[in-house]
Amino acid sequence: MTKPTIAIVADSFLPRWDGLARAIIELIPRMTHAYNFELIAPRYAGERPQFHGVRYHLFPMLPWVRIEGAGLPLVSKRFMQRALAHVDLVWTHSIGPLGNTAVSIAHSEAVPIVSMIHSIEWEIYAQNLPIGQAHFRNFWLKTCRQRYHKAQQIVTPSQATKEILEAHGFSSPISVTPLGIDTNRFRPRPASERNRTREALNIPEDAFLFGYLGRFGAEKNLQVLIDAFTQLSHPKTHLLMVGGNRSVLRHDKEDRRISWIPSTMTPEDFYPAMDAYVLPSLSECAPLAIREAMACGVIPLSTPVGNVPTYLTPDIGTLFAPNSVADLKRKMLELLNDPNSHEPRKRKARKLVMDRFNWAASSDRIIAIFDKILQRRTN
After folding, report:
1. CA-CA distance, 90 to 111, in Å (whole number)?
2. Burial readout 275-300 (b: 16 or more C-beta within 10 A, e: otherwise)
3. N or C: more exposed end of the chain, with fewer CB within 10 A?
4. SS3 165
5. What angle separates helix 19-27 from helix 359-378, to the nearest 10 degrees?
6. pLDDT grade, residue 67 (50/70/90)?
């Protein structure tokens, strides 16, 4: 029996590393037994993983155009039509130039569309603009609503995001499918390995290491973390910032207590060196990085964004007020002054992720959605 063919469409993908790309590469190998895939994405410079049953269709990028590291693909409708020529379903992961073009073609040819919404797109894009944020936010919200209206099904990783979408008038059916964490890849490391990593990064072995790993986008609000840490008057602390260039932040002076690492394809090398992971975001859906860190036995500190409040309990980590340097600093000091809680928190953090977040369960739920829609189309 011939397997159905699914087109995966993403306006951002590897080697640009973010939660969207992470979700796609985790789900694909768990779904190729059921489908063939055509993966439509921008052609960022660098390598992409190869999967059995997956064919790439890569669109060139507009030169010199970058917003927080993200570029804009040059969209050819003819090239997109060729990529979608024999697909049975279109699965979008954003609604930018590639996603919108694919949705328009699929809609005109009665090909079913499932849209996975990983973030509150109108908030994220607006926050990354230097001016006109309010006007653009309203414009992009209206645009998202119109484009996602063409989907037979919207899938989102958190109940909180579903409620936001419904409150803003998104009319397509919305289902919640939590995303998993690979707890074999993301796991605590022996003390000797942890110490070698710290030595390579010039971080003292006995320092309490706060960390962040992810994009340095405006919506991540990383300046709050930088300011809170630099105001700490606590000995033997260090901050590890992984995933971007510090030039995008207001921190151009040298500080031996802060280490900066560019974007990485191997985040599992850095989480285990941390003691606490800090997520100061203003907008999230179901952030993967904080749960990856927890799976590595790292204490989580976060703003109450997306689905984080549903699992970050006081015995594991702590929530702090959005955009508040003072509150984050206070929570960091409380943690530092309670050393007896550190190891129990780390064990509970990993156990929670192992118990609640499983990629196999995520892929099974998405397969069930696809099969239901494909069966309806056949009938």
Report:
1. 7
2. bbbbbbbbbbbbbbbbbbbbbbbbbb
3. N
4. helix
5. 70
6. low
What gap in Å lies between CA 35 and CA 6, rounded to an integer?
Answer: 7
Domain annotation for the chain: domains and CATH numbers: 5-180+358-378 (3.40.50.2000), 191-356 (3.40.50.2000)
Phi, psi of 32 (to 5 degrees): -70, -15
Neighbours of 33 (CB within 10 A): 11
Residue 377 has pLDDT above 60, yes or no: yes
Question: 211-248 pLDDT, tens per residue?
Answer: 999 989 888 999 999 999 999 988 899 999 999 888 77
236 Ramachandran zone, left/alpha/beta (phi>0; psi -120 to 50)? left
AA letter at 45: A
pLDDT digits (tens, 9 = 90+) for 19-51: 889 999 999 999 999 999 999 999 988 889 999
3 state DSSP class of 240: strand
From CA 264, how far away is CA 46, in angstroms rounded?
Answer: 12
Beta-carbon contacts of 292 under 8 Å, excluding residues fewer than 6 positions away, are: 181, 186, 213, 267, 268, 271
SS3 348: helix
- Specify the residue for token string 């979700």: 23
Q: pTM for the whole thing?
A: 0.88
CB neighbour list of residue 177: distance below 8 Å, 6 or more residues apart: 155, 156, 157, 362, 365, 366, 369
3 state DSSP class of 200:
helix
Q: Where are the alpha helices (DSSP H) in 28-96?
A: 77-83
